[in-house]
Structure formats: structure tokens, C-alpha cells
Amino acid sequence: MKRKDRNAVHTLAHGESPLPLYHRLYVILRERIVNGDYRAGHVLPSEADLMTSFGVSRITVKRALDDLAAEGLVERSRGRGTTVTQAGASMRVGSPISASIDGLLTSLSVIGQGTSVEIDAFEYQPANPYVAEQLRVPVGTVVQRASRVRHLNSEPFSHSTSYVLESIGRSFTADDMLNTPLIDLIQRSVTIAQVQQAITCTLADNVSARLLKVSVGSPLLKLRRVFIDTDGRPVDFAEILYTPDRFEYRMTWSRNANNQLEVDTENTAISL
């Protein structure tokens, strides 16, 4: 059983959520489709496997899969199982927007210094297809994966999962991440020239619900971010989940000399 599914067993069976059990499973599977864990043409685990992995009944699994099918995210057929549709895979956020980083990196560093962090996972593992696509490396390339929860006034407000190129990740340890913002650790090895990011919304799955102390299905803000160095190489891909009541991202657009709107880096900020 995968680690994320082991966590899900406890959350689905014992989580204090007003959502029906089948809907909580639906949320988890839907998030994996939208995130790219399950891509177009991917056959989801069988009903029996999902029952075992999540510790739920066949009725619960069938209702969750039926809801995914009704939404057009999967197709169900006897003999073939449940397959992710192209429409479902296309829901994944595409190429994120580019933004100037003059003020952004400073904001990230200040946030890191003004909050406390808890390391949930720190490991080296092969990049799955989605992570490999973001970092522009072959599938299976070893990357550093770190899962962290940030606290403000002893309350969690963000859960981030970062994937750093191994050559850079080996320059610091998990203990370093407890005391130094990741952006500062990365910039000891390379200079960040560009940041690509996308901001969207999502629902808490079993893992984020546990770490952020919210119910499965609770609304969250999701930020996807890629740091690119001066050679045009993506060096870090991260997904950060925020509780919406404790996070605000502000930016100002100004008209430049060519009469085009561009981000005003002096007025771009992250507020907690």
C-alpha cells in the first residue's frame, strides 16, 4: 500500500468531516487526476484495490467512481476498468504565468524567517512524469522531495511539497531547512533568474487535511511555482497549499512605456 493511501485509510475512516465518505474518496481521486498523478489513459486501481487501500466498502468506491464518471473525468467499462479521460487530464493547470522576481524572492525569504517550519518528509526519489515535466528532466531522474508545514503563531497555514534537482539538493540537509528558507538554500548554489507560477484553488485531500488541521474537502489555495536559474534550467518545482483565511497574494499591474500592462514588482507582496 502506498504511503499516501495508508494516510488516507485513517483520514477517511476517522476524519471529522461533514462530507459523506464516498465524497471524500471522490475528492482524493479527483485531485490526483487534476494534479497529473493519473494522466489521460491511465487506468485507476480496481474497485477491490481501492477498497483495500482506503479501507472503505465497495458501495463507497462505486459511488465515488460514478461521480467522477458523471463529471466526465473518467470512463468506466466492464473488462477495462476505470480510465482517465482526456477531458479529465486537461483540467490540470497548464503552463504557469511568468512573473518578475525582484520583490518576490525577498518576500519568500522574509516569510521563511518569520515563521516556523515542520519537516514532514525529506527524501530522494525518482521523478514521476508530472514532476519530470515541470523540471524538464527525464522521468525517473532522482530529485530531492521535501514536504513541509509552516506555522504562524503555532497554527499551520501552508503545506509545501518541493522537488529540487539532486545536484542542488545535496548541498543542504533537512536540518538546514528547519532554520533557513528554501529559496536562500537554493541561491547558495545558483542564481534564480525567473519564477513561473500559477495560483488556483483546490480541495484538501487526506494528506493536506491532516497537516493543515482541516477537514477533507475544505477549500484551499494552491500555488504552483518553478524556479529557473540563469541558464534557463528549472531547479525547483513546488506546490504550496494555503488555508485561505491566512494567506493573501497581492500584485499591482502598471502600464509601461509601450502602453502595455506589466507587474509592478515594487507592489507585489505575500501577506499572512
> Could you give the count of β-strands?
11
Radius of gyration: 20 Å
Listing every helix as H and every strand as E from the N terminus to the C terminus, the arrangement reads HHHHEEHEHEHEEHHHEHEEEE
CATH superfamily of the largest domain: Chorismate lyase-like
> How far apart lie the N and C ends?
37 Å
Spatial strand sequence of the major β-sheet? 3-7-8-9-6-5-4
**How many structural domains?**
2
What percentage of amino acids are in beta strands?
25-35%
Second rung of CATH, namely the architecture of the largest domain:
3-Layer(aba) Sandwich
Mean pLDDT: 80
Looking at the structure, the CATH topology of the largest domain is Chorismate lyase
Helix content: 25-40%
Biggest sheet statistics? 7 strands, antiparallel
Supply the CATH class of the largest domain.
Alpha Beta
Structural class computed from helices and strand pairing: alpha+beta
Task: Summarize the helices and strands and which ones pair or pack.
Blueprint: H1 3-14, H2 21-35, H3 47-54, H4 58-70, E1 74-77, E2 81-84, H5 86-89, E3 97-99, H6 104-114, E4 116-126, H7 129-135, E5 142-152, E6 155-165, H8 166-169, H9 174-179, H10 182-186, E7 192-203, H11 206-212, E8 219-229, E9 234-242, E10 248-255, E11 261-271
Antiparallel strand pairs: 1-2, 3-7, 4-5, 5-6, 6-9, 7-8, 8-9, 10-11
